[in-house]
Design brief:
Helix content is about 90%, strand content about 0%. It is mostly helical. The chain folds into three domains: about 5-155; about 160-190; about 195-223.
Amino acid sequence: MGIFSRTRDIIAANVTDLLDKAEDPAKMIRMIILEMEETLVEVRASAARTIADQKEMRRQIGRLEQVQSSWLEKAELALSKDREDLAKAALVERQKAADLADQLKDEIETLDETLRASEADIAKLQNKLREARARQNSIVARLESAQNRARMREMYAGAKIDEAFARFDLLERRVDYAEGRAEAAGMGAAPKSLEEEIAELRSSDKVEAELAALKARSQNKEG
């Protein structure tokens, strides 16, 4: 079953209303576009057949005009031979051909009206198809946007982000442990003995004395 009963329904259709009522708008718009495309192909094919029929009818009219001319010549010939009966019969045949040609001309006019209606329908169907395709692009864009937002929410609130932060916590704990080991290595060192401290003072005094001697020698040289 199609969504539309065909051309008239498609032209009168409100695509927005159809999509608003659909459980799956993306699927619905694909179905709408497919049916519109199929209908457009059918309408064009029907118009092509009508054009072909008109061409055949015009050829028949051309042949009937030749027939009329032929019967007219025959009527004139018969009349010239004093055969009025034959001339009248020839004119009757000529009139039959003329009547048939007139019928074909009337049919061509009717088909012209059909073609004009088909042309108008084709234009309206094309407009509806453009509208549906534009809505399809909009729906696809909105769907992609919604999917992207869903992925972002999953990233920020889902298990993956929790797992990432858990890894960060683990790394921080490892760094804390390394720093703790470095600090612990300096703990418990034995304090300096009294002799070590006095020796350091003596060493410092010697350095100071040597420095003073260097300064004195430098001054004497300058003097």
